[in-house]
Amino acid sequence: MASRWRGDCDWNPEGPSNSQQQDPDVPTQLNHCKFPTDEPANATTLWINQLKYIWGLWKKSDTMTQVLHEYFASAPNPYAATLHITFNCEDIRQNKASSLAYTVMEEFSRWTAHKEIELKQCLTVDLKHEAFGLATQQRNISLTKMVFRIYHLRDDKELFVEPIRELISRQQYKEACQCATILELHQHFTVEDFIIPLVFQDKLSVAEEFLLDSPEHQWLLVSFLDALLGKRNIRNEADLIIQRLQIHDVKVEKLYHKPLSKLVARLTKAYTLPPECCPNLNQKRNEGALQFLIHKRYIENSLGPESWSEMARETVGNNGDLQLELVICVNSYGDPHEALYWANTYGIPKHKWPYNVRMLQEEDPGVSQQQGAVALVSSDYQVEEESWDDELTPVRYHTFPLPQSSIIVVDTQESFEQFLDYVKDVPMVGIDSEWKPYFGTRRNELALIQIATRERVYILDVCNLGSECPELWHGLGLILFANETIIKLGFGLIMDMNMMKQSLPHLGGASCSGSGCMDLVLLWQKLAQDHSFVFPFADEDGASGESLSRLVQLCLGQRLDKSDQFSNWERRPLRDSQKLYAALDAYCLLEVYEVLSRSAHEQNIPFYEICSEVMTSIKSPRKMAKHSKKHIKRELQNTVIQATPSPHTEPIPASQLRVVCDTMVQGLGKMLRKCGVDTVILKNEEDHDVCVRIANQQHRVIVTRGLVYNRLYQHVPQGHCYPVMSDVLEEQLEEVLKYFNVFVTKQDVFSRCQVCNGGDFVVVTQEVMRQLAQSSQQMAQMHAGDDYSKWEEAEGFSSESDAYSEEGTAPPCVLQYRSIPSGVIVELCQTRKGVTIHADAVPTGVLEQVQKFYICENCGKCYWDGSHFERLIGGRLQNIVTQ
């Protein structure tokens, strides 16, 4: 054993007599610590035991440093001796930087800092292999990196390809990936060697450092996962991969469409990969985009004909399946003329047309040239009104008060310079921006910036000028955004500013913090909540929430026409209706501000003092300094957090409480939802301030914890923000229900959808569910997918919300549900809102036994009665539910 670690070396260490000169402060124990220069096994073991004894007394200290450095100097081969000591440390497998093993290697690194040249001959290939073996037997990645660096394994990295393959064969994927990353051996391994196994084990974070340095593996991984998304049955295909690669400890709940699609989208954005890398994900996202467009067009009636036409064309593109789905879906919503138009536009074979569409053309062959999107565009909205409801009185919207000649499109360097020369002297501007909505992996890019004055509205064409004339964009930042003498009005300024900074790095001074920036959302809240402000006009439809359209209606008497909001803002030239929409969105801010100012003075409200307060309160989120967990806990304990009195003095049922839960209490939010409380839960990537916006727009109370409470409570009415105190989930639930004076009955439990928070359910029989399952299979054959949610953005792969139960149901249903009489669209396997019903998630055994099913109207999740309800009532909610 001693010869194994000693090695042959011409290193001439100092004698023990020189190395053991003691400082006055060194304890007497060191006088008895003999250094075994010839290293017989018994002498080395004795010295290591002495070292452990000293470690037990002194831990990391100058004493330990001196002992180790003297030993390194006395050893015939310091590299071999250090491996021997480290290997014999009992705490080598502890993942701690405070262990003896880590300290030995750390001190050896310091000792060799200026001796590497003279020690070079001591470092043999055999010792490098021993160092590799030692490093891979423990779990501390920092120690692994340190050993690899000290023993210069990267200089002979090719030697370790086979040892890494041995790790893979032993299913040590994490260690194999880490070693390949540190040694830069990317080209020797495929994604199936350890990247795919780590993904299936939900340990992608281990592989991210490997992927960061290898664009080739980034592409291959995303392509591999995207190909999996394209399979008819993802789980079956994943099982084949698991069996072929012999992967253990697989997180099967991550191998469904929803979490996988989120992962592919996140990776594509993180590594800025082109859409060609993930065609199946883009196909699914485009399907979702089409459903979304149809919903806005035929359910919400909020999408104008021109916007509908261009966005529908953009979405389906040259994809034959999507073109056919467009025809089928439009027809299913009672618009066969539109369906016929698109069928002829894309040359879809007639045998694929819906029956009534074929009959429509046979009755009048020329009808397809007179109806549809083209006719809608050219008829200036007349057909649109007729196709929706002829008996309804046309809605009157607020219009742009200036002549159209006052709208100036800035799309050249010359016009940009003229704009800068004009805007530098104005006292106030309204600012808005537009960007084209995307549902695929491509991120949103700024298309327009609208800057309105009292006489003109400038539309800056970012698509044409964004990458040009950086000095002019920098000038805009200095002249306008960094100039506190110009008041800049906006509505939701933070989002607009963030988009500008993301798309225009040369803009520089774009910020909504400090004086000069006025967010009308905050001004509205301040006036209404603190000063009982009375608007000139009442709500025409009793609407709630804080939208710009509603604020315009309260101030000016008419809402904004938002039919062009969801359109292709990157298309050039812009349509006249787009220019008017964009200009009015910025100009109305000036009109609203003027009305607020005049009305405030009439009501003796100190308007300008309030404006000053609002402008100085707009702050960007500040990064907190890193602290230890103990320090943070101590800080929270020492900070007095007192909730204001509850807004509910009388008991209220769970169904009447509306809550938004911060990211810090997501688990509590899920429990509140199970109790029947209308609960919005922030996603991991959302900022705490989103709570305030949602709470004020949707009339919800905020539930958070810790110091975040101090940041949020002052932006909502008194008693509408509660900081939970307990660390235990059940106690947190009791806290919140007690504070808001809420009682929960059995009828409340599971009365809301656990996925989307919806409260409307369609009740269907066993036979209808069978028909839906058959339709789902037919749709799956057409589109090759097991979609769960088609248009969700990418999120963290390890989020709890991503789990997709193989049983197909989270909770059972309870005693009462509000049944929607309109039922479902069996042929399309959709709810009346155009949402896909996930009938394929209902197991065959359940389908044969259960007589009644409940379908969420908003997300298509299927539920049925089961034992989960009674388990929850008798478990976590035992002390919560009342009779």
UniProtKB/TrEMBL annotation:
InterPro entries: 3'-5'_exonuclease_dom, Exonuclease_MUT-7-like, Mut7-C_RNAse_dom, RNaseH-like_sf, RNaseH_sf. SMART domains: 35EXOc. Residues 15-27 have a biased composition (Polar residues). It comes from the Eukaryota. Residues 1-27 are annotated as: Disordered. Residues 407-601 form the 3'-5' exonuclease domain. Gene3D superfamilies: Ribonuclease H-like superfamily/Ribonuclease H. One of its GO terms (molecular function) is nucleic acid binding. One of its GO terms (biological process) is nucleobase-containing compound metabolic process. This is 3'-5' exonuclease domain-containing protein.
